[in-house]
C-alpha cells in the first residue's frame, strides 16, 4: 500500500500497446465481461474510466485473476485499499496462501490471512506496504523488481465489485488477532506460518489455474 499514494496521482501509465495485446488480451480478452481497456497517452491509474479500476500487469503475473478472485476482494475490502496499493510480491503472497488453504481444504478466512501476514511499510518502495510473515518469511517470493511496476497499468471493469478511496496508512501496521488456539484450524494454520514456502512451487500452476478459472480446457 502507498503511504503517500496520492502524490503519485500524476504518474502516467506506460504499458506498451503490444504488451497489452500480447500478455493481457490474449488471455483475459477471451472473457468479454472483463472489459479491458488500454490507457490513453495522458491517462494515469488515479483517474480510471467510469466503471473501471486500474490493475497492474505484474499483478496478473503474480496471481491476480480477472474478474477478481473472492479472496482478493475480501482482503482489499477488509483493509479498505484498491488493487494498485498492492505491490506485485504482495499479490503473489495472497495467491500462494489461497492455494495452500485450498490444498489443505481450509476455507478462506480473513482471520487466517491476519494470522499469517502483517503489513509492513517499506520507504524504499515510495512508502509502499509489503506483506511479511507474522513469524517468518512464510512465502519466499523472487524479487521481480519494483522500479516501475505501478506504471504498467490498464483498466478493467469492476463487475459489481466496489472499492473505496485509497486509504492513507502512513506508518501503521495492520495486525489482527488471527486464529486462536481453541480454533480447530489453528494447528494447520500454524504449520503454514512457521515454514518457508517457495512461491515458485505455487506459481508453476498459475497458467493452469487461470485456464480453470476462465472455464477453458487444455
TrEMBL record:
Name of protein: Uncharacterized protein
Source organism (scientific name): Apostasia shenzhenica
Amino acid at each position: 500500500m502507498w503511504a503517500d499514494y496520492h502524490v503519485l496521482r500524476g504518474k502516467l501509465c506506460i504499458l506498451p500497446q503490444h504488451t497489452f495485446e500480447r500478455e493481457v488480451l490474449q488471455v483475459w480478452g477471451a472473457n468479454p465481461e472483463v472489459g479491458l481497456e488500454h490507457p490513453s497517452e495522458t491517462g494515469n491509474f488515479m483517474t480510471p474510466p467510469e466503471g473501471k479500476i486500474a490493475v497492474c500487469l505484474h499483478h496478473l503475473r503474480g496471481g491476480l485473476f480477472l474478474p477478481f478472485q473472492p479472496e482478493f476482494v475480501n482482503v482489499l475490502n477488509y483493509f479498505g485499499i484498491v488493487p494498485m496499493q498492492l505491490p506485485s510480491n504482495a499479490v503473489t503472497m495472497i495467491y500462494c496462501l489461497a492455494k495452500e488453504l485450498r490444498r489443505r481444504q481450509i476455507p478462506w478466512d480473513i482471520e487466517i490471512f491476519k494470522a499469517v501476514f502483517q503489513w509492513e511499510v517499506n520507504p524504499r518502495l515510495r512508502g509502499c506496504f509489503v506483506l511479511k510473515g507474522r513469524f517468518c518469511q512464510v512465502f519466499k517470493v523472487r524479487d521481480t523488481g519494483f522500479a516501475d511496476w505501478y506504471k504498467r497499468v490498464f483498466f478493467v471493469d469492476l463487475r459489481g465489485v466496489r472499492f473505496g478511496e485509497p486509504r492513507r496508512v502512513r506508518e501503521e501496521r495492520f495486525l489482527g488477532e488471527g486464529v486462536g488456539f481453541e480454533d480447530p484450524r489453528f494447528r494447520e494454520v500454524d504449520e503454514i506460518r512457521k515454514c518457508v514456502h517457495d512461491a515458485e512451487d505455487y506459481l508453476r500452476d498459475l497458467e493452469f489455474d487461470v485456464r480453470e478459472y476462465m472455464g477453458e480446457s487444455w
